Amino acid sequence: MSELNLKQIAARLDDAASHVSAVEQIDPEYRMALWDAYEIQRLSIACRMARGEQSVGIKMGFTSRAKMIQMGVDDVIWGRLTSSMAITDGGVVDPARFIHPRVEPELAFVLKRDLYGGESPAQALAAVDAVAPALEIIDSRYRDFKFSLSDVVADNASSSGFVIGPWADPRQDLSNLGMVMSFDGQDQQIGSSAALLGHPLRALAAAARVAAEAGEPLRAGAIVMAGAATPAQWLVPGSYVQLMVERLGRVGFHVG
Ligand code: 0L1
Ligand code: MG
């Protein structure tokens, strides 16, 4: 794909996000290779940086076997997190910022040391400062939330917002923590941290690998959203979304 096409598509996706307006899928028109899709993602996030947003970390997608099978893929995808996507724990989210937002229960890590890719999960843990319950708002920029693998990669893996709860010591057993996402106190999704590639630290090691492969290794201070433990749910205006993670605590936000 030509440099011009890559830039035009990146601008199209950036416009869709900033004007809260869905666009048609790109892949049927251009047959994007996966590396083109990641370059479009990079260029589209560069448009945000040019407006003053800062890079704060990355998100992992398709970390559950169920979602990989659904998409017919055998590797994770990833996207970039920027400062404007951060939502305060307990804060209010205006749904008008999004096209058709969904929310999913996750864990987040923050690093105290750089990761270079190739680390084992145990080695990756040594670089972690803290772990927290987290919620991700995903909002595909494509009409009807329909996309191919390349489409969703170009669209920053649908990433749109994230909320991080209280940070906790990561040196504890994270392998099978119960995770319950509720709306107004009604349980919506129940899962386990084991859904994240079998162990959330595997998702972290995978994040280090993909970031290094992209030439942007994870630095101290970076946040990693490690992936969803359950399917995503549509946001309901007026509701309070909460995630409770066994031993780690709660995180939530009001949908305005
Ligand atoms: O964060 C995720 O696992 C979602 C990745 C993108 C696919 C989707 O929008 O459902
Ligand atoms: Mg997610």
TrEMBL record:
Record Pfam families: FAA_hydrolase
Stretches assigned to the Fumarylacetoacetase-like C-terminal domain: 75-254
Keywords: Lyase
Protein name: 4-oxalocrotonate decarboxylase
